[in-house]
Design brief:
alpha/beta; 340 residues; single chain; Spore Coat Polysaccharide Biosynthesis Protein SpsA, Chain A; 9-stranded mixed β-sheet
């Protein structure tokens, strides 16, 4: 099959030697081959660049650790395809990915296409399974069709539109909200992002509890700063998401974060004052926080197995606690002048 639009695959990578081979193997095995594969090495000190050459990808280098926003922009500048397909280095894709994604661009009104993670990932530990399913569920709950979400584990955009809006914000140095902000910019410009729930990619990442904690803390701090940088269009419309603006953020998650944060404060106060009076109210708040995630816990029991519900419930409370303190720390940093 030949496509009317050419597709350039761009993969930013940093020390991705454990997964990049599988990722590239799934791309070169497409039923409809891409126009080109560009791997942008972001200062790796493992065999990532060698893997790119081995699979015949065009290899670019940022010259050091400069972050995925810079790496993706560099790849887009070098690309010659009509459509840019951004892909993370730790995912594998189905053989029909390019054909399925490209079909949406026959509609001239479509700026971009967003995909999902699969609900099940190869990792068997609770932390990795929770993280993977959390992202699957968060996007899958968005009504089908148009979205304001652009998550670069696997997302495509017309190259001319990408350049028109200035690409990713390179002032964001870490893999946090650079792709979120691009999605919001597209939506604010009137661009159409299609969420195709039938196109799902497999996430190969495996997280320890400490890695998960650092990642979620980093992400929530960045989201807090992003929200404060644009209070009306981002903090209220996108993150708090009161009127369902097509993002993967849920007002119920926001409420649960506040409930868990309040419960933690009450527990700390009980410890400081050596008084048990705050224990029961704190426990009630934690139960209420879990009720905010009832649909998530119900769905994971159905999609995975019933045995994960309890462990996912505990992970959920832990996750909301991290996100809450991340928001607090991000807000403090923003007020002190560190806006990125």
């Amino acid at each position: 099959m030949e496509l009317s639009l050419s597709v350039s695959v761009i993969i930013p990578a940093w020390n991705a030697g454990n997964t990049i081979g599988d990722c590239l193997d799934s791309i070169v095995s497409q039923t409809v081959p891409p126009h080109e594969i560009i791997l942008v090495d972001d200062g790796s000190n493992d065999n990532t660049p060698g893997k790119a050459v081995e699979y015949g990808a065009t290899l670019l280098s940022t010259g050091g650790r400069r972050g995925p926003a810079t790496a993706r922009n560099m790849g887009a500048d070098a690309a010659s395809g009509d459509v840019i397909l951004f892909l993370d280095s730790d995912v594998t894709v189905d053989a029909d990915l390019i054909r399925n994604v490209s079909s949406h661009f026959s509609d001239e009104s479509v700026w971009a296409v967003q995909t999902l993670y699969t609900p099940v990932c190869p990792a068997k530990d609770t932390v990795s399974q929770y993280q993977n399913y959390y992202y699957y569920f968060s996007l899958n709950r968005i009504p089908a069709g148009s979205t304001a979400t652009f998550a670069t584990w696997c997302a495509a955009i017309r190259r001319n539109r990408f350049l028109e809006i200035g690409g990713f914000n390179v002032r964001i140095p870490e893999p946090t909200v650079e792709d979120e902000e691009l999605g919001y910019t597209i939506a604010d410009r009137g661009g159409l992002i299609i969420l195709d729930k039938t196109v799902q990619v497999t996430h190969l990442a495996c997280y320890t509890l400490m890695q998960f904690t650092r990642r979620r803390l980093r992400m929530s701090k960045a989201q807090a700063k992003s929200g404060w940088r644009q209070i009306k269009q981002r903090l209220l419309a996108r993150y708090i998401n009161v009127h369902e603006s097509g993002t993967h953020h849920s007002r119920w998650v926001v409420l649960s974060i506040l409930l868990v944060l309040k419960a933690q404060i009450m527990l700390l106060w009980s410890l400081v004052t050596m008084s048990p009076s705050g224990l029961i109210p704190a426990a009630v708040l934690l139960v209420l926080a879990l009720f905010c995630h009832l649909s998530f816990l119900t769905r994971c029991s159905r999609d995975l197995n019933k045995n994960v519900a309890l462990s996912f419930a505990l992970m959920c409370i832990y996750d909301m606690a991290i996100l809450g303190w991340g928001i607090v720390l991000g807000t403090i940093e923003y007020i002190s002048g560190k806006k990125y």
